[in-house]
């Protein structure tokens, strides 16, 4: 049974989310604040975390928790579920490493569909690696989907599940332009153009932190992105 952590300070909303997830067959733990959730994560990582941005007196407690969870594991899927819907908050959440950002006006079926989509992506990564047992080498990039990791110039990159999917889609066929829709399809995720752009910016930032001269992810203006060796 997959285990989902719900970090939400509004008891009624947390209970509704817990009940909906349990009906889908998931194990669920609920935490009302950042410290209790972080303590639990240090003992056992969840298979997926659903986090509110504002947690009690901590206006951006969810952002802090996302950052802390990412330091514990780059691969655990994270979804923000929050009432805060400004572009600034959405971009901030994605830049911190969240895989998805949902607002609380979303329907339960839609929310569950996004949860299941994230798990499908995790499973697809595992199945693809088991089927091929191969690594992908593109110049100084090494993608190891079996271990869900990437290296640039032999230095590990801490990538989220979504970032791994996008990177694999770009690097698989160097020089081929991938539209934002194709990147969404490859990642098996429903996002908007701005969200894909945020993921690309975050990917570039992680490469540049290792190699300031990195320039392999090119923008094809009006079309999408390509991997250029």
TrEMBL record:
Source organism superkingdom: Bacteria
Alphabetized InterPro entries for the sequence: CheY-like_superfamily (IPR011006), OmpR/PhoB-type_DNA-bd (IPR001867), Response_regulator (IPR022305), Sig_transdc_resp-reg_C-effctor (IPR016032), Sig_transdc_resp-reg_receiver (IPR001789), WalR-like (IPR039420), WH-like_DNA-bd_sf (IPR036388)
PROSITE patterns: OMPR_PHOB (PS51755), RESPONSE_REGULATORY (PS50110)
GO BP terms in the entry: regulation of DNA-templated transcription
Ranges of residues in domain Response regulatory: 3-119
An annotated Gene Ontology molecular function: phosphorelay response regulator activity
Domain OmpR/PhoB-type: 133-229
Gene Ontology terms: cellular component: cytosol; protein-DNA complex
KW Phosphoprotein (keyword) present: yes
UniProt DNA-binding region: 133-229
List of residues that carry 4-aspartylphosphate: 52
SUPFAM superfamilies: C-terminal effector domain of the bipartite response regulators (SSF46894), CheY-like (SSF52172)
Alphabetical UniProt keywords: DNA-binding, Phosphoprotein, Transcription, Transcription regulation, Two-component regulatory system
Protein name: Two-component system OmpR family response regulator
Organism of derivation: Simiduia aestuariiviva
């Amino acid at each position: 049974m997959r285990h989902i952590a719900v970090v939400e300070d509004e008891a009624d909303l947390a209970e509704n989310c817990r009940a909906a997830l349990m009906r889908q067959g998931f194990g669920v733990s609920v935490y009302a604040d950042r410290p209790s959730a972080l303590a639990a994560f240090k003992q056992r990582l969840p298979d997926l975390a659903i986090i509110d941005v504002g947690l009690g007196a901590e206006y951006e407690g969810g952002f802090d928790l996302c950052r802390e969870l990412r330091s514990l594991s780059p691969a655990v899927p994270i979804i923000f579920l929050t009432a805060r819907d400004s572009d600034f908050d959405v971009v901030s959440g994605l830049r911190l490493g969240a895989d998805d950002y949902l607002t609380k006006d979303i329907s339960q079926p839609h929310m569950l569909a996004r949860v299941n989509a994230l798990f499908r992506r995790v499973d697809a990564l595992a199945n693809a690696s088991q089927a091929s047992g191969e690594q992908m080498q593109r110049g100084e990039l090494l993608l190891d989907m079996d271990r869900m990791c990437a290296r640039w110039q032999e230095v590990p990159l801490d990538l989220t599940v979504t970032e791994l999917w996008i990177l694999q889609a770009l690097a698989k066929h160097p020089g081929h332009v991938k539209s934002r829709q194709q990147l969404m399809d490859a990642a098996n995720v429903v996002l908007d153009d701005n969200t894909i752009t945020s993921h690309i910016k975050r990917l570039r930032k992680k490469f540049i932190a290792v190699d300031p001269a990195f320039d392999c992810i090119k923008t094809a203006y009006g079309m999408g992105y390509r991997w250029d060796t």
